[in-house]
Structures are given as C-alpha cells and as structure tokens.
Design the sequence.
C-alpha cells in the first residue's frame, strides 16, 4: 500500500513543498533555456503519444494499482494506466492541485528515483511503492519520455493497437556493490560487504609440511622431522 503521506507535521510538509516549488521552477527554466540553445537537431521525441509511448510505461510501473474497467473508475488518479482522461484530473495531494495527475505522477517518480531503491519509505511521503512494498524506480530513459511528453502537451494520439496490459511492477533488484570497500562496509543494498571473516588464504609456499595458517595442514612432503610452525623439514639423519 502507498500509505505514505502521513507521519509528518504539516508545517514540515509545507516547507518541503515550497522547496519543491522552487526546484520545479529552476528545472523549468533549464528546460526552456535548453530548448533555446538546442537549435536544429532532429526532434524524434516530438511525436510521443499516450497510446504509442507513454501508456506502456504506465502499464509497466503503475497499472498494478492505477487501472480500471470503466471511465467511472477514473475519478481522480485511479485508472490513468488505461484511460488517458485519468491523467487530466488535478492533483489532490502534496499541495499540487496546480498540477494534473500526469505531472504529479512525474513529480513523484522523480522524487522516488532521487531517493533510490534502498530508502526507508516511512520517512518520505512522496515515495511510490509497489503492492509488495518495494520502492518503484522508473528507469531514467522512461522517466525522460514521460517528461518530454508532458512538456509537449501530453498528446493523446490515436489508439491503433491493444493497450499494454495491466501488470505487476517489476521488482527493482538491488545489486550489492563492494568495489573499493572494506569488509563490514554498507553494500548499498541494506547488507554489509564480506559478511563474516574474509576467506583465509593458506600459506604453504616454501613449506614442506606444517600448519597452513587457516586451521589446516600443508601437504606433507617431509620425510624427516617437521617444524610445524615454520614448515621447515629437517633430515632425521643430520646432526
Ligand atoms: C501499489 C499501488 C500503486 C502503485 C504501483 C502506484 N500507485 Fe499511485 N497511488 C496509489 C494510491 C493508493 C494512491 C492514493 C494515495 C497516495 O497518493 O499515495 C495513489 C496516488 C497517485 C497519484 C495521485 C496523487 C495526487 O496528488 O492526486 C498519482 C499521480 C499517482 N499515484 C501516480 C502513480 C504513478 C505515476 C505510478 C507509477 C510510476 C504509481 N502511481 C504507482 C497506489 C499506487
């Protein structure tokens, strides 16, 4: 469940929203500036439509919950994954009534992606969660398509093929990363690097017998007397 917008004193929430407002403004300015300087590159993203490009993304990451069988079920946010009109309702939470559902959705996708797959969702209100309680991360390429499409005015397009079906959110598998980290460090996925003692390397080089330093013995090729600590073999017959 996404019971996520609670637990916060409302003035804190309001401050955050003000900050977000500011951020969104800055982003908007960058986008405008970006467009101005881009010049004459081919605009392959200008043709994005709901049916061809965006609905499949919503189907993949949102339809587990945002899917409905009749337009009546589309009041508010509930079934925008299979009804374009569902995206046109105004936002109802986070003080984002100035946005429509597509924009609030993108805002939440961005905030969730920024926080990453391993955060504790209890501490944040905007985080998107799957029914299984996993943080929903929409990969950057798909997020960018949604962003561009919204900036283009959310063209609906024409439905020429069946909608992408309702599906469960793909789980965001976390891959532990222990590169350049010490044993005991955070692995980035809620675990620690090389849990337990590091594997023991037997030290038997140059020894003909004796302990291997890891609780075992080195291969014994000593036919004389073995010094178990050093692994030096002394000929029985030497003085
Ligand atoms: C596990 C179910 C679930 C999934 C998956 C899910 N949502 Fe939601 N969504 C909800 C629930 C429940 C609410 C109402 C409570 C809330 O806003 O958290 C909601 C509300 C919303 C709203 C309305 C917010 C507003 O202010 O009006 C938007 C927009 C939204 N979700 C977008 C998305 C997007 C985009 C995705 C996919 C990237 C998504 N959701 C995935 C369950 C889900």
Sequence:
């Amino acid at each position: 469940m996404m019971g996520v917008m609670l637990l916060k004193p409302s003035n804190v929430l309001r401050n955050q929203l003000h900050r977000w407002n500011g951020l969104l403004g800055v982003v908007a300015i960058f986008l405008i500036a970006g467009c101005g300087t881009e010049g004459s590159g081919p605009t392959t993203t200008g043709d994005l439509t709901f049916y061809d490009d965006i609905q499949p993304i919503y189907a993949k990451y949102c339809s587990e919950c945002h899917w409905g069988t009749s337009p009546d079920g589309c009041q508010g946010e509930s079934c925008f994954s299979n009804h374009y009109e569902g995206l046109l309702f105004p936002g109802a939470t986070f003080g984002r009534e100035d946005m429509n559902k597509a924009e609030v959705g993108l805002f939440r996708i961005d905030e969730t992606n920024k926080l990453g797959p391993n955060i504790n969702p209890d501490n944040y209100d905007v985080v998107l969660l799957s029914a299984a309680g996993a943080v929903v991360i929409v990969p950057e390429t798909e997020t960018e398509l949604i962003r561009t499409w919204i900036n283009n005015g959310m063209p609906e397009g024409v439905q020429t093929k069946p909608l992408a079906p309702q599906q469960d959110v793909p789980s965001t598998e976390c891959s532990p990363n222990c590169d350049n980290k010490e044993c005991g460090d955070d692995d980035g996925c809620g675990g620690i690097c090389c849990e337990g003692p590091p594997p023991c390397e037997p030290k038997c080089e140059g020894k003909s017998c004796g302990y291997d330093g890891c609780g075992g013995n080195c291969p014994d090729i000593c036919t004389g007397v073995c010094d178990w600590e050093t692994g030096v073999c002394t000929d029985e017959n030497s003085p």
Summary: The longest strand covers residues 225-227.
